[in-house]
Write a structure and sequence with these properties.
alpha/beta; 9 helices; 277 residues; 39% helix; two-stranded antiparallel sheet; 7-stranded parallel sheet
């Protein structure tokens, strides 16, 4: 959860790289409203670490400085909850200083009060607003004289330099038919949660059909599957056979406030990596 109680990002990243992991992912909540009108999606009380999360980009920069090959992911960044151009500058700076190891996982968020505290975009149209946010950011990354005129975002031609050294993949963390359709339409990857997919194989097949509907090829859109259930080498092999490119694993929710479990878990899961080769 990237709290101050968790292992230092630089230490954690170095251990992960040495253990053979591909990437490290940090999520984002700049704040949590004390108003609890929006219920916590899994039900029950909101876990304490949500109120203590550090900035993902700064933490990933510390991780980048301590490693050479480990990829660095936001899982997920709330792109609509920051000023767009300033955020794009942060992303491109991290991309360049990390040697193009950055992966941007993003989503629409679940806490309406948090969203409305910092964004003028419409909550009821958040999927369309995120599509436009990503499109505007890509324009800044790509165009020498970048301008964007959309339904929600507008800016006249600007100098935006430097550009990323390489394409920054944008991976959409979303569930349900609307989220899946948006991922198939414009994202560089799709990041669902295994326990919410039902039949994982059929869900991925359905996603591939959507990609074809939008004239895209399944091999061009990576699937990053967040593992919330029990983990085994056989399960990961099955997911790989279903078309999953990457599995994100971590400490289970009931243990988020037990940072002493993180290093033993890395050792346990590194043994599983060897079984997948």
């Amino acid at each position: 959860m990237n709290t101050a109680s968790d292992p230092d990002p630089a230490v954690l990243a170095k251990v992960l790289e040495q253990a053979g992991f591909e990437s490290l992912w940090f999520g984002e909540h700049s704040h949590i409203p004390r108003c609890r009108t929006t219920p916590y999606p899994p039900g029950g009380e909101l876990p304490g670490p949500y109120r203590q999360m550090m900035d993902p980009y700064i933490s990933l920069m510390a991780a980048a400085a301590a490693t050479t090959t480990l990829k660095l992911g936001t899982g997920i960044a709330l792109l609509m909850e920051r000023e767009l151009i300033s955020q794009a500058k942060t992303i491109v700076t991290l991309e360049r200083l990390s040697g193009s190891r950055l992966l941007i996982g993003t989503g629409v968020g679940w806490n309406r009060e948090e969203f409305e505290n910092v964004s003028d975009l419409p909550w009821q149209r958040r999927y369309s607003a995120l599509r436009e946010t990503v499109a505007a950011t890509r324009t800044l990354f790509r165009e020498a004289s970048a301008e964007f005129h959309g339904e929600y975002i507008n800016f006249d031609p600007v100098w935006f330099e430097p550009k990323p050294l390489a394409k920054v993949p944008v991976i959409f963390g979303a569930m349900g038919p609307v989220g899946m359709r948006h991922a198939a339409e414009w994202a560089d990857g799709w990041m669902p949660v295994d326990v919410a997919l039902g039949d994982v194989k059929e869900s991925i097949a359905g996603f591939h059909r959507l990609l074809e509907e939008f004239g895209r090829r399944p091999e061009d859109v990576e699937i990053t599957l967040v593992i919330m259930g029990e983990l085994s080498a056989d399960l990961l092999k099955y997911y790989r056979d279903c078309g999953v490119s990457r599995c994100n694993v971590g400490v289970s929710m009931e243990n988020w406030e037990k940072p002493e479990l993180i290093m033993p878990l890395i050792e346990e899961y590194s043994a599983v990596i060897e079984q997948l080769r």
